[in-house]
């Protein structure tokens, strides 16, 4: 199980694994924030939002990789632990399996995206190679056409010269 968790952190996160969630319910996270701007009191969901969303991906628009999904899963697990510390296991009992399923789907999509990106790069490399070959072929054809034109011009001169000799 430990080696599997290193490869795939999603596999160790479960509500059934009580060791993941058996944390004392009193902690410095459980102190409620009373307001954001001293005008409106915060609700429980505001407190949860303030405790979570620690993901660095939140502010980046990057191509998501499988490793990114694993990193995000680890951060979500930490956020779940903070929520459990503040509000108990029951608050997220139904949410954890859903999040795990979404993370698994995200992992599959990220793997597909990585394969697609590899295929795209391979195709792009092939296109560059084919364009290079096309340009080389065009250059050779142009060179051949120039040489043929020179040969034809030389042949015409020789024909004119010989015609003059015959006429004279």
TrEMBL record:
<dbReference type="Pfam" id="PF09744">
    <property type="entry name" value="RH1"/>
</dbReference>
<dbReference type="GO" id="GO:0060271">
    <property type="term" value="P:cilium assembly"/>
</dbReference>
<dbReference type="GO" id="GO:0031267">
    <property type="term" value="F:small GTPase binding"/>
</dbReference>
<dbReference type="InterPro" id="IPR051241">
    <property type="entry name" value="DZIP_RILPL"/>
</dbReference>
<keyword id="KW-0175">Coiled coil</keyword>
<dbReference type="InterPro" id="IPR034743">
    <property type="entry name" value="RH1"/>
</dbReference>
<feature type="domain" description="RH1">
    <location>
        <begin position="52"/>
        <end position="140"/>
    </location>
</feature>
<dbReference type="GO" id="GO:0005737">
    <property type="term" value="C:cytoplasm"/>
</dbReference>
<dbReference type="GO" id="GO:0051959">
    <property type="term" value="F:dynein light intermediate chain binding"/>
</dbReference>
<protein>
    <recommendedName>
        <fullName>RH1 domain-containing protein</fullName>
    </recommendedName>
</protein>
<feature type="coiled-coil region">
    <location>
        <begin position="103"/>
        <end position="154"/>
    </location>
</feature>
<dbReference type="GO" id="GO:0036064">
    <property type="term" value="C:ciliary basal body"/>
</dbReference>
């Amino acid at each position: 199980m430990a080696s599997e968790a290193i490869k795939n952190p999603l596999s160790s996160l479960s509500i059934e694994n009580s060791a993941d969630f058996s944390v004392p319910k009193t902690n410095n996270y459980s102190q409620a924030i009373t307001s954001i701007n001293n005008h409106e009191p915060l609700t429980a969901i505001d407190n949860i939002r303030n405790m979570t969303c620690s993901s660095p991906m939140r502010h980046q628009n990057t191509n998501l990789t499988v490793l990114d999904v694993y990193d995000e899963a680890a951060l979500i697990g930490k956020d779940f632990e903070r929520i459990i510390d503040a509000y108990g296991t029951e608050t997220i009992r139904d949410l954890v399996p859903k999040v795990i399923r979404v993370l698994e789907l995200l992992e599959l999509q990220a793997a597909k995206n990585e394969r697609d990106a590899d295929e795209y790069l391979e195709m792009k490399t092939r296109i560059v190679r084919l364009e290079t070959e096309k340009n080389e072929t065009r250059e050779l054809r142009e060179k051949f056409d120039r040489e043929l034109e020179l040969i034809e011009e030389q042949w015409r001169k020789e024909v004119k010269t010989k015609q003059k000799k015959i006429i004279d």
